[in-house]
Specification:
By secondary structure, the protein is mostly helical. It is built from 8 helices and 5 strands; from the N terminus they run H-E-E-H-E-H-H-H-H-H-E-H-E. The chain has a 3-stranded parallel sheet. The protein has a two-stranded antiparallel sheet with strand order 1-2. The two termini are 15 Å apart.
């Protein structure tokens, strides 16, 4: 399941054999160049990995990680990228986003880290969100909150979501 999602995102190693057909808004993803997939990731496709601690860079603040996505894909100033990061942090219900912006991943709970990963995936409002076991390490209450949040954003933005899970309770 995860390998298929990684193939769609172009995240498999260069020596991986990928075949078949996957299109996004009429554009063929299988066989697309690394450069094209790099441009699509973030802007048109976002991914939420199952382990937020390994998905986030431990020595960079969470705010810097979200703003990097904005600045890499759009001609945004640092101030504009910060504003957008704070907006998405608020949208995914990060409490006190101004303060948390300058925090490091280890300073946040597992649920907050997963919300940061979701914020990073959604900051550019992609057409497709791949959620690879997004609630694996979370307790049942936080699982419900995260899934409800993703469903709410999916409805509001009209985004397609691929939810990978082995947990029938999550389904």
């Amino acid at each position: 399941k995860s390998q298929t999602c990684f193939a769609v995102m172009g995240l498999l190693p260069g020596n991986a054999a990928v075949s078949g057909s996957v299109t996004l808004d009429g554009e063929q993803l299988v066989g697309a160049s690394r450069r094209r997939l790099d441009a699509l990731r973030g802007r048109r496709m976002g991914i939420v990995f199952q382990d937020p601690m390994t998905a986030l860079t431990p020595h960079r603040t969470v705010g810097a990680q979200i703003t990097e996505v904005v600045m890499q894909h759009e001609a945004a100033t640092r101030a504009e990228a910060r504003r957008r990061a704070l907006e998405i942090m608020e949208r995914v219900r990060i409490t006190d986003p101004e303060r948390r912006f300058d925090m490091y991943p280890f300073e946040l709970s597992g649920g907050m880290r997963q919300r940061i990963v979701i914020a990073t995936a959604l900051v550019l409002r992609p057409a497709l969100l791949i959620a690879d076991e997004p609630t694996t390490a979370l307790d049942v209450t936080v699982q419900d909150q995260v899934l409800g949040l993703m469903q709410e954003i999916q409805r509001e933005d009209g985004m397609a979501v691929v939810l990978v899970t082995h947990d029938l309770g999550v389904v």
